[in-house]
């Protein structure tokens, strides 16, 4: 499949991810940039929340029931939030404030997205340019990472993710509260928003799972991340065209995010959750009074949107909500400090606010403690010294990247200095918090301190490195805008000294300014996307290629999986070692498997007997009974190459697949991909 051939399918996936959320944004009353940035997150919120609710009610989760739920919720939100505002519009036009003209504290509302004295068309054009620039560059990098639009992630976790998608499609059970067992073991919690979205897309479009997965990655990384980051930048720095366009370029330049999480792990749920963080932080900045621009929402509409985004993030991966709660504490402290310093502020309101902050901190501490993974699961070790980790954080690179983009380091340092002198200085503190978390995971040798702070992320520096660009984007954008302003001032001064009035008029013409902006973007691209970006792209390509990191599947194994449903009757179960990729007989081949993931072996004596003694079926008592109990009729053998060399799976039970032991070779592809029928149990 070529990228041109895949384009219609990718566009269809994008449209289906946008439309439900677009309906919800219309019902809430969102508009402009916020509406665009919130569309997919609200879709995710609707899918994931309906999955949980339908799970409680025992209602099958499908495109039909989800569509009905979205229409119902949209109608209710319209009646509660939008209709009263529409009725008040006449009064607002007469001079009353219906919530669309600002907060009354000097912070302008978006309205036409242009501040007084500037062209609304220039701002709108800048927003479009930034969105197209950001989405286009990220999408281009993703094509280099995936190579083909139907590439398969060669990673350990992909076993679970693809099988979870198939499980939802087959059973209609999509609740995050029960997804963890995949029907093989007892139901447990596993954040399922990503799996819900992909499953619904597969069910609705009829497309194979692999291109749907990759198209969803494009929508999240190129779409949601781009629009959310631009939204956050406009809340922090305003919407001057040079700032907006700079944001569109800067958001594409950090190797650690979004690129790293498109292949590492592979952590699809983390990617989905983290691309929504900028949107949420922008909304929280408005709600706490820290934003320099306002969306013009009433309190009910704003908090409805915030809660929906929090729900989407939490059901995609809760760790992103936790880090936002930590950053919110910082934002609340800044907001409280500003109010406390206002002339005439009552002492008792200041004291009450301080008590509330203390209570919030104590509750957050308990939540943080309960959300940490176990120490046994938090196995990642420090990998660099503190100065090296600081350098990686300043450049926003993935851990162990041998290259640093010094242009980004310079912009981040300039941006920190610029923001420290503005009302958005809270971003400097937030960036420092994210850097501190990364330094703790990457370099801290005090294991207790390290676990206390980063156990939520399994002490994994890769996941925490991906957090840093969330606030590094507005920081570096502030630096880029400052550099651009200084350069523009220098050029204007040169025109005044050397060229007289003609040169000044020429420099002020829109065409010249647009050309200068284009040259600045091209220069920025060359300076900011260098060897560090090349390294992360090559690393990603190895995780999707056939001969790089790991070895989940080979081309021959994938070919056998894709025709498996033509050879294995419906209802029959396949046995195999999931560390070699055989578990994907379910996720890709559509055939039931006994073990969908290395950690999901059915907890019964029969399953354990099969793992140890399957090829002893003609001599070992109980094996045939276990095969019958689990409907196992087939064996997939993908050799002994494991996707995770540190993981273990007992292969003693099927290391002798010969006719004398009760196995008949039915199909093979290459030297290491074979399908066997079990023939050693009479009457099976």
Automatic annotation (TrEMBL):
The chain crosses the membrane at residues 6-24, 36-57, 63-81, 125-147, 212-234, 241-261, 320-337, 344-363, 404-420, 427-444, 464-485, 506-528. The lineage of its organism: Bacteria, Bacillati, Actinomycetota, Actinomycetes, Micrococcales. Pfam families: DUF6541 (PF20176). This is Uncharacterized protein. Keywords: Membrane, Transmembrane, Transmembrane helix. It comes from Kocuria dechangensis.
